[in-house]
């Protein structure tokens, strides 16, 4: 039964070589666990591993039958576990960038890779072109999940699946309250419950509820790394077409941009560069839908520079001369896209030799500063990660222990930070899991 203990000592403890983990002598009695980790994702399993390696009696509980279900879905099953390189500026947070940097760089990328290839037992390969690191075998996410489960069991971590935690009461002896059975006795608790993306894997946002009950504030969660809906029927007819672009959002000093592959879909837009920027639209949409929402600024615009070419780059293509504009564009752009853009401007039959100045300017803008006709962003069920969460300023950067409740620690997606696609969010999970697990064991 979830959370239950018999009257005999160690009835729920982990055993190594026939003796309970933490066993001192036949007269030493110990009840409960030094550390209970709530959530069996990559951050939770990493936290459990490092807590156990520090000598703690550790219990990992997960609402699903087995830990790591979300890992199975990562990267379409291939499981991109790390980036080839990393910079803190690539991450998104409402918290202090200095705090994020301090946390992220506490465990260098090469050492994280050494952890995965050493104690966890994975073989990894790099894709230089994409900047991604994958497991070398054919198992993908299952390979990563299974390796982690074996590693934490080797350290003596006890794992309980189908165990739904309903509350954390830091002032109670049985401070981890479960849905069925008596609460779990724990000296320290690590909250590694994930965000709200992929809710079918158990990511329900419960960790945010725990944080707020404990007195923490919360950056309102929003879907991130998610596709965008919208576009015209003509755009939907381009479904499957992919090309490199520069995608920008914001204006003036607030303008940000990135370069990557862009994909037209039957319902809107996707591709790495879209997923990395879509949180701006998702966050705006959730704020607008909130009860008693204040007056909102206009929806953020996403502007595309096709092929990452500026207006001046395109000017030579449109220079006066023989032939049509359509023919000139088809030599650079995919023909179908050029046709759609010119049709929208009603310039499909335009000749280069007779192109008026204002029409030339309109075409240049469509090529270098095209505003996507977006309707909305996808929801949490489609998002790869969750933005928002517990502010980084409310945890101690060296241990990720709560500044409000010393016995509680946070890690992974429940914290206010996420990175772009390409293994950055796995890296955040590993780094924060290590800090929280080690911190909880030494607390």
Radius of gyration: 25 Å
Strand order of the largest sheet: 18-17-14-15-16-13-19
Low-confidence stretches: 4-29
Q: Class of the largest domain in CATH?
A: Alpha Beta
Give the total of beta strands.
21
Structural class: alpha+beta
- Hey, roughly how much beta strand do the residues contain? 15-25%
Biggest β-sheet strands, sense, barrel: 7 strands, antiparallel
- Mass-distribution shape: elongated
> Could you estimate the helical fraction of the residues in percent?
25-40%
What count of helical segments does DSSP give?
14
Separation of termini?
28 Å
- The named CATH superfamily of the largest domain: FAD/NAD(P)-binding domain
CATH topology of the largest domain: FAD/NAD(P)-binding domain
Tell me, rounded to a whole number, the average pLDDT.
Answer: 90
Q: Could you say how many structural domains there are in total?
A: 2
Please state the second-level CATH architecture of the largest domain: 3-Layer(bba) Sandwich
Keywords, separated by commas or semicolons:
29% helix, five-stranded parallel β-sheet, seven-stranded antiparallel β-sheet, 443 residues, alpha+beta, FAD/NAD(P)-binding domain
Structure explained in plain terms:
This protein has two domains: 15-223 and 384-442, FAD/NAD(P)-binding domain; 228-291 and 298-377, no CATH class. Helix content is 29%, strand content 20%. It is built from 14 helices and 21 strands. The longest helix is centred in the last third of the chain and has 19 residues, at 424-442. The radius of gyration is 25 Å and the shape is elongated.
